[in-house]
Amino acid sequence: MPVALFLCSVIYAQEKPVAFKGALIYPINGAPIQNGTFIVQNGKIVAVGDASLKIPADATISDAKGKVIMPGIVDTHSHLGGPEGGDNSAALNPDTRAFDAINPTSDGFKKALSGGLTTLNIMPGSGHLMSGQTVYAKMREAKVMEDLIIVNEKGVYGGMKMANGTNPMRGTNGFPGTRAKSAAMDRELFVKAQEYKTKIDKAIKDSTKLPERDLRLEPLVEVLQGKRVVHFHTHKENDILTAIRIIKEFGIRAVLHHVSEGWKVPEEIAKAGVPCSIIVIESPGGKLETIDYSTTNGAALSNAGVLTGFHTDDGVTDSRFLIRAAAMSVKAGMSKEKALEALTINGAKMLDLSSRIGSLEKGKDADFIILSGDPFSVYTKVEQTWVEGKKRYDIKNPEDKAFLVGGYKVYSSDRAEYMNHDDEISNQ
Amino acid sequence: MKNLYKIIGCLLLLPFVAQAQKAIKAETIYTVSGEPIKNGVILIKDGKIEKVGTATSVSIPKNYEVVNAKVVTPGLVDARSVVGLSGYLNIPTDQDQLEKSSPIQPELRAIDAYNTEEKLVAFVRENGVTTMHTGHGIGALVSGQTMIVKTKPGKIDDVTMVPMEMLAMTIGTAVQGNFTSPGTKAKQIAMIRAELIKAQNYMQKQNDKDSSKRPATDLKYEALSKLLKGEVKALVTVNSMNDIMNAIRLAKEFKFKLVIDGAAEAYRMIDEIKANNVEVILHATMARNGSDMVNMTRESAGILNAAGIAVSIETGFEGYVPKTHVLLYEAALAVTYGMPYEAALKAVTLNPAKLLGIDKKVGSIEKGKDADMVLFDGDPFEYLTKISGVMIDGQWMSK
Description:
By secondary structure, chain A is of the alpha/beta class.
């Protein structure tokens, strides 16, 4: 057995490098490289450069002339895999983990790969003030959840989902009926978490003084320690500012999500230093608190200096079309450079994963996509999606391509897995 | 005094007349009815297309206002929408496309519900749609009537092209849940057949020589009679293979003209569709692949087109967001997924115009047709291309 293990690791270490030649490379951390060379080995990026870059003699060479290579897309807000909306027994559920609900073999992840997505933040819904712990997932081949998760720089593999505005305002069964009550309930829980944390901090030298374990408060201690990021669903200007107020009061690291009226208060968001993960929807309208949504959000926020990323909220928008969020935002005034960052490195930063993903740099994970052309063109397709040096999607493979285009019996008829978002339920 | 009024009247008319004559010069004109014209000119007079041709063959009269564009297409024709009945707010008072009091209500007229001032109407117009087949939505066996409008602002009578175009019907799971009955597929068909048989009886009695034996006017059966007489077509939303066949069977039994809408699995039914002369309005390329549409493919438009079926692409209806799709992007993505470029353009212009029976007026850039046009600063289908002008009936909506 030890011998076998040893052999395996040897084989892994000696995996041959793969070199892609001739593509237009968007490394994201630097200027685009025409006729570039891109080399990966053992799941990591070995080198990125122009045509003069030396290719190792044993490398498998792949001709990528006419193609575009960029980092795998990071979706900072997805509901793929069936994380479920949230438990209706309470408005605040810090103890529930999407980890325990997600199906790691979901077809949804193949759909995500066909759209060029390599990392997802999979979250429970927004029908609760706090619907639970989220999961940061790599689109690796997975059998069990452990295959899917990625532990970040802070030592956690997920954040904490919160929401304000109308979705959690049910007014019954312990749920808030007003905005002020929503904020009061959030604050009350964080005060408790602060007290619990104080007890833990005091017991640092004497573990016998540790308080009893509390599954509801433990993840919130991680939030207060800055390890676990709060992902805060919010739409309207007043709700955005309320979220910021709570974040500031408790010193929480957070990302605002959707932020439909962000364009009204970009300076305030920038001043607070809170990143925004936004959705791009092609036409106006929807539920009342989103009616002032604008596709200029990306431009307004990024111009104000807010760290801005895109998300699908899949099933609200489709993972296969996240890439067009960039084009649509550029059409509405965002710079191309900022829009590509918003698909990649900015999301990585929001998940505390930018040391591993989000740009094509030596030493980072070999998570990248090969496009048929310009990332801002409607005609462009994702041809290949690679995760940690493994080709997970190839449009030339009919089985893979089926997840892009659909067809007879490609997707399960169980719609629930794709459409179990609370927004859907509360607005039908 | 009378003369004075005449003079004032003429003075008032003068600027209007002067504005009415326009010329558009473009690097590319997609006439759709013919080959694209490079370096072309379109003359517009009194709201109609006066002349179209190359710059060398068409000279622009002196008093014509000239506008330049990179690309010009006909105003787009949305084959099936609910915009104007479905508003941009997800609240019941803004959603008039589906009446849930009863599953069969062909008497519901779209003209009584269409809101010309709906924000989404302006939105689709700004995105190039100048003619829209809209009306009652999916979710009832017969949800009501549809209509055709120009997307220009104004009073309902000013914007209506055809007040009663088709009867909107649905067969499939989209009906279940909206009503206590039908609860099953077989019941759906039984209920439709029962009402159509009643309509046949009604028509027969209406023809009775003894006028005292004729039934009192019944709005429901009046509307169904129009279908049975072939005056209007049935617009049946069906997606699964079974349901498409159900619609074809019904059309054969009652001899009505059938348009299938949505048609997610039409790609599996090409022989049946052709054999029965069924017309097809295809779901948005980016429609959600759930429920009855689980087997949809984004390659459908290309597959059907290659099989010789005239495809019209719709924006359709989404229950949540987006409140409407952008027709241009739906056609563009049909190209991305295998449909030839000019076929895709046809699928949002001339094909739906023909299907809707309005191709003498709209759908292509031809002499004598309504001057409905869209101007672009690049490839119409590209995300980053901007629309530089929209014209309806010779008037600039935006420029």
